[in-house]
């Protein structure tokens, strides 16, 4: 079975003290993760080292950065490179979150470069894709997501693609309390897998975890996560409440 993943995306939330407390609460719950499951905490840059040392003795727990720059190094004041992340033993990085695309004008082409630089440093990208409401209303979501994948992922070799985690996050469901229905999520996940199969192979498509993101919480996680092509969640708001996130971890297949 594919790896099942509960990924917490804390975004720009929590002081250092709150971050330590939240991590402790989740780790102390000692959830008995199903076989092959993984929990990932995508925390703000200043907390990466602390979070990584907190999970050091927990085999199924990892830490992710929420972003990195597409260039290797240089005069890019305020930016963080994949090489820096690797030098502090970070093994995952969110790439192309819709908030980065919208507020920081990240294009599919720039995201392809970010994916490359992550892979060069042995960091697995958690690649986010997903359509805005206008596109969904026009029933053009499949073409929209396919273009995001073609332009940011499909230059990769098979070996490289196997390191990618995909997160489908319909923008209209992010932070809105409006979740995609289980059927909408399953349909899109199956579609994403079908285009991976077409571009690469059915075997490879079958290995890639595809997470759902967009107002996932304790109450809707069991149903969403039960869908055959939904391999976990990228969780924003609910990941800031230990009890909620723990329930999502428990709902992994
Ligand atoms: P949300 O955010 O769970 O608060 O909707 C998900 C995300 O943006 O990754």
Describe the model.
The model has no long low-confidence stretch (mean pLDDT 96). Strands 1-2-3-4-5-6-7-8 form an eight-stranded parallel barrel, surrounded by five helices. Helix 11 links the parallel strand 7 and strand 8. The chain is globular. Helix 1 packs parallel to helix 12, helix 5 packs across helix 7 and helix 7 packs across helix 9. The protein is built from twelve helices and eight strands. The chain starts with a strand and ends with a helix. Helix content is 42%, strand content 15%. The chain has one domain: TIM Barrel, CATH 3.20.20.70. It has 253 residues and is α/β, with parallel strands linked by helices. The structure holds 2-phosphoglycolic acid. The site of 2-phosphoglycolic acid has 13 residues, from strand 8.
Bound molecules: 2-phosphoglycolic acid
**Shape estimate:** globular
Task: Outline the low-pLDDT stretches.
Answer: none
Number of strands: 8
**Distance between the ends:** 10 Å
Strand content: 15-25%
What's the SSE pattern?
A: EHEHEHEHHEHHHEHHEHEH
**Structural class based on helices, strands and sheet pairing:** alpha/beta
* Highest-level CATH class: Alpha Beta
Instruction: Describe the largest sheet.
Output: 8 strands, parallel, barrel
The amount of helix comes to 40-55%
Strand order of the largest sheet: 1-2-3-4-5-6-7-8
- Corresponding CATH superfamily: Aldolase class I
What is the alpha-carbon Rg in Å? Answer: 17 Å
Give the helix tally: 12
CATH topology: TIM Barrel
Mean of pLDDT:
96
């Amino acid at each position: 079975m594919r790896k099942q993943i509960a990924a917490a995306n804390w975004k720009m939330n929590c002081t250092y003290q709150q971050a330590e407390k939240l991590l402790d609460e989740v780790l102390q719950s000692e959830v008995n993760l199903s076989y092959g499951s993984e929990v990932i905490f995508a925390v703000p840059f200043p907390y990466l080292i602390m979070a990584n040392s907190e999970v050091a003795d927990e085999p199924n727990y990892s830490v992710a950065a929420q972003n990195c720059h597409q260039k290797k190094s240089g005069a890019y004041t305020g930016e963080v490179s994949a090489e820096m992340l690797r030098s502090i033993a970070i093994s995952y990085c969110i790439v192309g979150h819709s908030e980065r695309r919208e507020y920081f004008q990240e294009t599919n082409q720039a995201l392809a470069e970010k994916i490359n630089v992550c892979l060069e440093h042995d960091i697995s990208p958690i690649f986010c894709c997903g359509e805005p409401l206008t596109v969904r209303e026009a029933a053009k979501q499949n073409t929209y997501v396919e273009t995001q994948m073609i332009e940011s992922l499909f230059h990769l070799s098979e070996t490289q693609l196997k390191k990618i985690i995909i997160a489908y996050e319909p923008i209209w469901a992010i932070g809105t309390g409006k979740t995609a229905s289980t059927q909408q999520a399953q349909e899109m996940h199956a579609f994403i897998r079908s285009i991976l199969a077409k571009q690469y192979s059915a075997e490879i498509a079958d290995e890639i975890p595809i997470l759902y993101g967009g107002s996932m919480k304790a109450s809707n996680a069991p149903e969403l996560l039960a869908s055959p092509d939904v391999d976990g969640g990228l969780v924003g708001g609910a990941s800031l409440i230990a009890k909620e996130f723990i329930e999502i971890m428990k709902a992994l297949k």
